[in-house]
Design brief:
The complex is a heterodimer of chains A (248) and B (233). Chain A has 248 residues and is of the alpha+beta class. In chain A, 35% of the residues lie in helices and 11% in strands. Chain A starts with a strand and ends with a helix. At the A-B interface, helix 6, helix 7 and helix 8 of A face helix 1, helix 2, helix 4 and helix 8 of B.
């Protein structure tokens, strides 16, 4: 099938950038979205043009590297899926697709569809960890975790930090990401000692990185490839408010 | 033992600097304003009672003995409105700064109309409130207000005179419609902003917010409609 692509081309961070039109004439419906871009790039290289830069790594939906806006939806039209796991069978002959990088002040464009998501790393560095005693490994199950909390913590920990939540959010907020990280640790006993400071530090870092503010719209939840729930944002709000009120 | 470093600023500053702090303020002031909307509606519905009922209620509110309480309530509401507006403007600026380059193409995945238009419905409702106060409280616009005696406004006559003007009624109904879309998103969203979300209760909260918003719209809009079709004379 034939796919028409309008892709954001930008040479580097200081380039203004613009949309360019491409045609991929012989797309196989079994290709993944990224393979379709690979085919386009092969063609561009043969024609001595600059290939389209896009982030990717594992191509099995677990690393969080890939992603761009496809027709105004982060990771494309299929819910609960990263761009690499989106297959061309979900499109039809003659479809016109607009590919744009994640747009946020905190995510400067590096090149074409590649953005710098270092801001998310810095939010993690601000408090997305626990302190443990080093030495010999502790006994298994020495710290009991209620089954339900373990499940909810794992659901939050499924966040791969792809940045789709920020990209889709009308406010370019990183609330779902930050909330997932805070909920993931805060639901476990090992996360309790630093729970209050973590909420304050990570929320402050997100603010410093110039992410926007959550207005409870739910766009993030709808496009999250790991289907993280809006509930983690409420949990972050609760942790932050409690820490602000009761911290000594 | 804790290994997380936090910036040593005053806790109030730190709270309000964070978007979550501002959202919490918006939720709390929003509750106050919702409470007022509800109380105001219940007061107004007395127009359907005995012809003197609403005037008696107005006389009670305007009784000099209650003036202190009235002004405490007015000041609290004015403060809540002010804080709600200031926080919303600051968050709006944050939002605009957070995405300097817009998408060429952007779809909505889950956003409701109400949630996307809070920054439109809010200012229009605020403009209406100013008009509404000038019209029925101050009497500076619209038909001249009538009084039964000092501190005894003839609310019934003023409402009928005001809503007999189709333009005033139309603006009123439009503002109420916007107020209720604003309330629909705000009423459940405030729980999320204050940190409450639960898979069992949040869907019920959303449903409850819709029911409340619709009931408030019906209650308020019924008054100008009743005046125009001659049910309230």
């Amino acid at each position: 099938m034939r796919i028409i692509l309008h892709i954001w081309r930008q040479r580097n961070a200081s380039d203004k950038g613009k949309m360019s039109r491409y045609e991929v004439p012989d797309v196989n419906h079994e290709m993944s979205f990224l393979q379709m871009l690979d085919v386009l790039n092969e063609d561009l290289i043969v024609r001595n043009e600059e290939p389209v830069a896009f982030d990717h790594d594992c191509r099995e939906g677990i690393c969080g590297m890939c992603g761009c806006m496809v027709n105004g939806m982060a990771h494309g039209p299929l819910p609960g899926t990263t761009l690499c796991q989106l297959h061309m069978r979900h499109f039809k002959d003659g479809d016109e697709l607009y590919l744009e990088p994640w747009r946020a002040k905190a995510f400067p464009v590096v090149k074409d569809l590649v953005v710098d998501r270092g801001a998310l790393d810095r939010i993690i560095a601000a408090g997305g960890y626990i302190s443990v005693a080093t030495g010999s490994a502790p006994d298994g199950n020495a710290v009991l975790v209620p089954k339900e909390n373990a499940e909810r913590s794992m659901d939050a920990a499924a966040c791969i930090g792809c940045g789709a939540c920020v990209a889709m959010c009308p406010n370019a907020a990183a609330a779902l990401f930050t909330g997932a990280k805070i909920a993931h640790l805060g639901l476990l006993p090992q996360g309790q000692p630093e729970r209050e400071q973590r909420a304050i530090a990570m929320v402050a870092q997100a603010r410093q990185e110039l992410f926007g503010s959550c207005t409870n719209i739910g766009e993030c939840e709808a496009v999250c490839p790991k289907e993280i729930k809006l509930e983690v944002i409420a949990r972050m709000n609760a942790d932050f408010i409690r820490a602000s009120l009761t911290g000594r | 033992m804790s290994a997380i470093a936090i910036n040593p600023v005053h806790r109030v500053v730190r709270f309000y600097e964070a978007p979550i702090g501002k959202k919490a303020i918006m939720a709390l002031t929003g509750v106050m304003l919702f409470g007022y909307v509800l109380a105001h509606l219940l007061g107004n519905l007395q127009i359907y009672g005995d012809p003197q009922q609403i005037n008696k209620y107005a006389a009670f509110l305007h009784n000099p003995a209650n003036a202190g309480l009235l002004w405490v309530a007015r000041s609290a509401l004015l403060l809540a409105v002010g804080m709600h507006i200031v926080a919303s403007l600051q968050l709006w600026k944050l939002k605009n700064d957070a995405r300097p380059v817009a998408y060429v193409k952007k779809e909505d995945a889950a956003a409701t109309y109400a949630s996307r238009t809070m920054m439109w419905s809010g200012p229009i409702v605020a403009a209406f409130v100013i008009f509404h106060v000038l019209h029925l409280t101050v009497g500076a616009v619209g038909p001249l207000p009538q009084e039964i005696g000092p501190n005894e406004p003839n609310v019934r006559a003023n409402v009928i005179a005001g809503f007999s003007n189709p333009a005033i009624s139309a603006f009123y109904i439009l503002a109420i419609a916007l107020l209720c879309t604003h309330l629909y998103h705000g009423l459940w969203s405030m729980f999320q902003s204050l940190g409450f979300s639960h898979p069992r209760y949040t869907p019920k909260l959303k449903m409850g917010a819709a029911i409340f918003a619709i009931l408030i719209a019906i209650g308020n809009c019924s008054i100008p409609i009743a005046v125009m079709v001659g049910l309230v004379k």
